[in-house]
Structures are given as structure tokens and as C-alpha cells.
Design brief:
CATH class of the largest domain: Alpha Beta
Number of domains: 2
CATH architecture of the largest domain: Alpha-Beta Complex
Helix content: 25-40%
Radius of gyration: 21 Å
Structural class: alpha+beta
Strand order of the largest sheet: 1-3-2
Largest sheet: 3 strands, antiparallel
Distance between the termini: 57 Å
């Protein structure tokens, strides 16, 4: 089937890298179907390099995984539509000039001159956690943005409540 890869610790030591890049590389190999992760003999897992596999083709797929992905896609689509509708109704259309067709987040555009840090602090004080846009739009610091994750909210009711808590801050 393939060749067993060295342990995570061994790869970190061998390449003199930190743990994070090694983890990302292993995850990318697994995502592309080039590595199978399975429980190892010890406490960790064993990664096996798959020889002769095409990139992007899953190594193993159980019978229910297609249905699970379809349910996940449907749930995320419903959450995205609910989040877009709630943001526009609660905060106004100017806050959301772009409506995504997929993904996990909405990018809320704040009025020019808004202090992003103060906005994030005020939102957090009201119980809604957002990510700063400057981390993602470093080349456009003059347009304050925040990232709202509609995928991370535990329920759709929590999602709507979190958006309503932002009312009056924009």
C-alpha cells in the first residue's frame, strides 16, 4: 500500500521546523489523498504515504460520506442565507456589499473612520466575537472590516442573536 512516514516529532527534528508547518504539510498531503492517517501502535497516529494515487482523489470513502457532505453543504447554505438576510435587515445593506456564494464567513464592512479595535471590543462586550479584518486585508487598512463566522455559531438561533447584538454599533 505505501511507506510509513516518520513521526511528527521526527519530521520536526529532521527539518528543523516548528510543529505547525509540519502539521499543515501532513494535512495537505492527506487532503490530496497522498497520505492515509490511521491510529498507530502508540498514542499518536500513523501516516502512510500512498504510492501511485492521483492528487485529489480520496483514498477511502464510506458509503455515507456523500450524504454527509450533502447535508453539510445544505446546512452551510441555509446558515449563509440566514446570516446575509439578518445582517442586511439588522445592520443595513452597506455593511455587506458582497454576498458570498459559499464559504464560512461574512465580511462586514464598517464605515470609514470606524476604529476596528474599538468595534471588536464593543461587540465582544455584547457577547459577539468577531475576527479583525486587518489580519486578512492588510493591503487595504483604510477600509475597516470584521469577519463574522456563520459556520462557528452553535445554532442558527445563536447566529441571529449574535448579529442582533451588533445593532447600534455600526
Amino acid at each position: 500500500m505505501g511507506t510509513r512516514l516518520p513521526s511528527h516529532r521526527a519530521l520536526v527534528t529532521r527539518f528543523g521546523a516548528s510543529a505547525s508547518p509540519v502539521s499543515r504539510a501532513r494535512a495537505l498531503l492527506a487532503q490530496r489523498g497522498l497520505v492515509i492517517s490511521r491510529p498507530g501502535a502508540g498514542l499518536g497516529r500513523e501516516d502512510v504515504l500512498v504510492v501511485g494515487r492521483r492528487t485529489g482523489r480520496p483514498v477511502h470513502r464510506d458509503a455515507g460520506s456523500g450524504r454527509s457532505l450533502a447535508r453539510l453543504q445544505t446546512a452551510l447554505t441555509q446558515r449563509r442565507r440566514l446570516a446575509v438576510r439578518t445582517v442586511v435587515e439588522t445592520l443595513g445593506a452597506d455593511v455587506l456589499p458582497d454576498h458570498p456564494r459559499g464559504g464560512y464567513h461574512l465580511w462586514l464592512r464598517l464605515p470609514r473612520g470606524t476604529d476596528e479595535s474599538e468595534f471588536l471590543s464593543a461587540a465582544l462586550a455584547r457577547g459577539t466575537a468577531l475576527a479583525p479584518g486587518t489580519y486578512f486585508y492588510a493591503d487595504q487598512p483604510d477600509v475597516p472590516r470584521v469577519r463574522l463566522s456563520y459556520a462557528a455559531a452553535p445554532t442558527t438561533a445563536d447566529l441571529v442573536t449574535g448579529i442582533h447584538r451588533l445593532e447600534g454599533l455600526v
